Amino acid sequence: MKGLNKVQLIGNLGKDPEIRFTPDGKQVAKFSMAANRTFKNKEGKSIDDTQWFNIEAWSGLAKVIEEHLTQGDQIYIEGRLKTESYEKDGVIKYFTKVVAQEMIMLGSFSSNGDDALDEDDIPF
To answer: pTM of the predicted model, to two decimals?
Structure first.
């Protein structure tokens, strides 16, 4: 039986995407994303909980991210988890990131004003 590695997130970019190219010319975009939730503790007090995720997108999706996203933008990301490791001072450190496979821009975007719809633009 095949396994399943899928993650879906809605949140806001914590910083502008960093864009790089691999030696063979593939584009990669990296950025952090915050997903918030609110819950009540045992005493009934509302608690805000923010979780941060490192996101990585490749090729065509990286290009769209470069052209349209900036810090604070709200997006939906669908992808897979990938754990990598590195060695520092003789100790192996592990980190997990989300490799984005799909993205939907949510909310309003102020990059050039063309992405927002007026009431007059809605056809019904």
So the answer is: 0.78
